[in-house]
């Protein structure tokens, strides 16, 4: 099952880039801004949040077309009510992302893709994993040996079910993604075990 995102709510992903000369704030939707920056061949500049703006989080941004690193950018933290999350996500995605549930093994669509690309958060579009770091763990869940950028994910201790695990959440919206374990392959030895419904795969448009 894949998550569904209401296109009318997509414009929340707006980040402010402060012009170096005049200090004018340019507000663009997250995806549109990434494409604009990517098309110009320039890396994103991290601009300090303006006074009085919504809570901002500093992430690393990546272009959809070829996955190149655009640099750091401040993005408004996505905060929604449960009703709004239900509108944005499928029931399965809501259970995983907002209730820290786990999808059934081998039930998701994100086995090793045949094309190059990156994985974005199904809730807020934050870049999470590069497909090049994905491997077949045999567990039935998409597995990666590292995130696309450390600051794009949040790791915290999970003591549920009588176990001590490290939970992984999206830094852009605090949605639960999965867990990380220390039984992965080189070079990190880590296995980021993610839920398919918490992500969407974006195939690169250029080789």
From TrEMBL:
**What cofactors are annotated for this protein?**
Zn(2+)
Q: Keyword Metal-binding on this protein?
A: yes
The reactions it catalyses are: L-methionyl-[protein] + [thioredoxin]-disulfide + H2O = L-methionyl-(R)-S-oxide-[protein] + [thioredoxin]-dithiol
Has keyword Metal-binding? yes
Location of the MsrB domain: 82-204
Instruction: Give the first-level EC class, as a single word.
Output: oxidoreductase
Entries under Pfam families matching the protein: SelR
> For this UniProt entry, what's an example GO CC term?
cytoplasm
* SUPFAM superfamilies listed in its UniProt record: Mss4-like
Enzyme Commission identifier(s): 1.8.4.12
Q: What InterPro entries does the database record attribute to this sequence? A: Met_Sox_Rdtase_MsrB, Met_Sox_Rdtase_MsrB_dom, Mss4-like_sf, TAT_signal
| Any single GO BP term | response to oxidative stress
Give any GO molecular function from the UniProt entry: metal ion binding
Q: What keywords were assigned to this record?
A: Metal-binding, Oxidoreductase, Zinc
Record's NCBIfam families? peptide-methionine (R)-S-oxide reductase MsrB
Family listed: Belongs to the MsrB Met sulfoxide reductase family.
This protein is called what? Peptide methionine sulfoxide reductase MsrB
